[in-house]
């Protein structure tokens, strides 16, 4: 009997099926997704073959061009998630959110990705029974998947560039009080307190900190409505460049420990609501506030026309906050 090839990690597998079959050898792509208990999600076989050698050859050819010349959205999405997350047995919170949001694309799963139009994506997005924040997660999946397809030359034009979110923000939270902010400033030796202050004085969502780019006088980042540039408020300038960024699990633990120690009951997202409250309290103009927070201007034509703000003007506005 011919010796079977030892397959490298991430290559896939060749399995002999039970029973009497004309083509007993199955060639399978590598596992890219796992159930909550860590067990692998089975993938459809590439094909079935009479001999091990035939199955191995088919798997080798598949690895040379796994997406084929007419890849479906589901095939591209699976390939992108393998690229983005690898093959970890247990998913992080970010990965679970991404995979959960990706299931909303199921109506287009079997459509060739190079035939999907902006209207296809917009109709799908508008049909989702979610509030704005839920649809924002789906937009993230769409844009990142089609950017990946564009890089891999699987599409001629990127239809995701034309999709738009509609509706007002539906986020809820409780701002820190003036007294609580004063208490935070009294404990800046604590890294989590410094993190809270950086969020309070910048308006970013907590998820954005993983990909923050701290520039000379600005912070560049964002996770939902697109990346934006925000001037660094003078009060957080001394420690924002040395801020330690926690991963998901550590952040939740450190945050709870710090809030409990300070006698406060707030989530990281409350920092964003605090920034909004501070903007209103200290007279930051409405358009600058929307730009600083990454809000869309919706159908307000006048706001769109007069929404030009230089970074110096935004700096002047954010420095109105003197607490």
Topology:
Blueprint: E1 13-16, E2 25-28, E3 47-49, H1 52-64, H2 73-85, H3 93-102, H4 118-127, H5 132-151, H6 178-185, H7 191-200, E4 213-214, E5 218-221, E6 228-231, H8 237-240, H9 248-262, H10 270-281, H11 286-293, H12 301-305, H13 311-318
Antiparallel strand pairs: 1-2, 2-3, 4-5, 5-6
Helix pairs in contact: 3-5, 7-10
Give your account of this protein's structure.
The chain is mostly helical and 323 residues long. The chain folds into three domains: 13-64, no CATH class; 73-162, DNA polymerase, domain 1, CATH 1.10.150.130; 178-318, Orthogonal Bundle (hpI Integrase, Chain A). The chain has helices at residues 52-64, 73-85, 93-102, 118-127, 132-151, 178-185, 191-200, 237-240, 248-262, 270-281, 286-293, 301-305, 311-318; strands spanning 13-16, 25-28, 47-49, 213-214, 218-221, 228-231. A three-stranded antiparallel β-sheet has the order 1-2-3, covered by helices on one side. It has a three-stranded antiparallel β-sheet with strand order 4-5-6.
Q: Structural class given helices, strands, pairing?
A: mainly alpha
Q: Strand order of the main beta sheet, please?
A: 1-2-3
- CATH topological fold name of the largest domain: hpI Integrase, Chain A
What would the principal axes of the Cα set say about the shape? elongated
Percentage of residues in strands: 5-15%
Low-confidence stretches are none
The pLDDT mean sits at 83
CATH class identity of the largest domain: Mainly Alpha
Distance between the termini: 79 Å
For the largest beta-sheet, the strand count, sense and barrel status come to: 3 strands, antiparallel
Number of helical elements: 13
Give the strand tally.
6
